[in-house]
Amino acid sequence: MTEQQAIKYWFETVRDDGEYPYISIFEIPQTGEATEHEFFHGNFDGIGSMLELLGKRPDLPLLIPKVPTRKDPSRWFIFLAFMRYLLRLPLFSETWNLSSTWRPSTPEKPSARAYRILSEAETEEVASRAKAAGVGKNAFYLFHLNRALDPYHKVTRSKRYWFIPVNLRTGEEKEPEGNYAGFLDAVLGRETTLQSLETTLKTRLQRGDAYAGRAALSLGKYTGPFVWRFLIKMNRYIQVRTGTFTNLGHWDLEEGKPHHIDWVGLPPVISYQPVGAMTVRLGNRQSLGLQFHPRLSRDPKLAEEVLRNWVRSMVQR
After folding, report:
1. Which whole number is the average pLDDT over 254-276?
2. pLDDT tens digits, residue range 97-140?
3. In Å, how far are 138, 246, 263 from 126, measured between CA atoms?
4. Segment 274-290, tens digit of pLDDT
5. Interhelix angle for 194-206 vs 209-217, to 10°?
């Protein structure tokens, strides 16, 4: 079993257990209906989904960016990072005060979903506020998303664990197909400040947490399918996160071409990682997408309310 096969098998097993591990990319024309494109997460990561879609739509005025690549560190570096990852287990996020009647039988597509395209003025306001606070946009978006979810959690001493995918392409991957992401965890307590979150994210990236996450996702290439399936099933009992937050970066437009289409993305949600949020910038406008797993809610109004509060938290003075 290769690394990519192990990652694909992980998502196939999750799907067999009643989850719906699909990335959604919405193509939103300024007039007319939005078109949703779905990608099985075992076959594509977020960036790969966009590259696959754009490769089939040469008519769109989007410039395909040069995807940032990383040089693989030494095996010793990855091993130490993986050991630190194991020592942090188990992870149990703060308890929700939301619940629904979902039962794991057949995969159910989330219905509590919402998205919004920020105006150019709002996009610039968010960027300037993040800069003024001395933090990166990822920390800024995640901090305010986490704050917007405060009313939907029980107040406890527990923290919230956010799963953050990280692109780990080395430059050798010529096709968009394949999941080439690792991940790191952002840990937020109610006392966490914006600046401390920024420091933590930088530290975790520098010490190789994303490579530890990728090693965890692809462990099946060493264990074989039977042990790997057992570990996947155990995962729901030892890694309970608040959700996934991912940023698909900045995609520019061809100069002089009209801008008639916007893009929004939604990462997959699973029952033990039940919120998915994605942001992507197209030209001068940022988009935000948010969805809830049906175990929490099937009500789109909930997602719309949280999204409004997320934006309000970021732009209010």
Report:
1. 85
2. 998 889 888 899 999 999 999 999 999 999 999 999 999 999 99
3. 11, 17, 18
4. 999 999 988 888 999 99
5. 70
CB 283 within 8 A of CB 259: yes
Q: In whole angstroms, what is the distance from residue 247 CA to residue 281 CA?
A: 9
SS3 181: strand
- Quickly list DSSP for 258-283: ---EEEEEE--BBTTB-EEEEEEEET
Closest C-alpha among 62, 119, 64 to residue 284: 119
- Tokens 């690549």 belong to residue: 69
User: DSSP string spanning 201-256?
Assistant: HHHHHHTTHHHHHHHHHTTHHHH-HHHHHHHHHHHHHHEE-SEEEEEEEEE-B-TT
Cα dist from 6 to 1, 43, 90, 94, 117, whole Å: 6, 11, 22, 30, 36
Q: Tell me what the pLDDT averaged over the chain comes to.
A: 89
Alpha-carbon Rg for the chain, nearest whole angstrom, is: 19
* Distance from C-alpha of 14 to C-alpha of 10, rounded to nearest angstrom: 6
What pTM, to 2 d.p., does this model score? 0.93
Q: In 3D, which of 274, 277, 236, 267 has the Cα closest to residue 91?
A: 236
Tokens describing residue 238: 């030892």
What is the torsion angle, in degrees rounded to the nearest 10, for the CA atoms of residue 40, residue 46, residue 50 and residue 51?
-90
